[in-house]
Amino acid sequence: MAAAQLAEELGVSLRTIYRDVATLIAQGAPIEGEAGLGYVLHPGFFLPPLMFTEDEVDAVILGLGLVAQRGGEVLEQAASDALSKIAAVLPPEMEDAMATSGVLAAPGTAADTPYFAIIRRAIHAEEKLHLRYADKRGTATARTIWPVAVGFFEAAEVLAAWCETRQDFRHFRLDRIVAAEPSGLRYPKRRRILLAEWRLREGIDGDR
Length: 208
Hints:
Blueprint: H1 3-10, H2 14-26, E1 31-34, E2 38-41, H3 54-70, H4 72-89, H5 95-99, H6 116-125, E3 127-134, E4 140-152, E5 157-163, E6 168-173, E7 177-186, H7 191-202
Antiparallel strand pairs: 1-2, 3-4, 3-7, 4-5, 5-6
Helix pairs in contact: 1-2, 3-4
């Protein structure tokens, strides 16, 4: 597989692909590279068991627990499945750390966000959405947006999107969305480009 193809599929730069493949080769992965051919990973290679520190285990458990509380039914199941997969591949000496972690995501009341699943699908498909959105006074407007990301804050979940009406990035509280319908149309920019532009606009570090 060519480095450019990997970079396109993963949404990263060529430099990142070169760096990460070099790291994998240094760790013993049987990868060969040749100009005009790309990278080849020989069959039969298995990744070593996942190695986490106790702090990292706590971070994973807490993060997935919070996802389960606020991500809706689909992501709640996904978080549970992810924890099971991680637990299954941890080395024996780390099994107790997973089972006896001292961090818990306490049950909470998630906001009523019935359109979250539709928004997630649109984000993954890079598809425009037709919204009816109510402002804080309850006045509803119709928008066509290019959804970029959903942020989870203490008080609300917020959708960041390019708004065709405003010709600019706008933020929409999920609990104020009156209706959301897929348009069947892809937006004209790749989402990773939009995400980078939004982060730059908001002064958000790219690693966050």
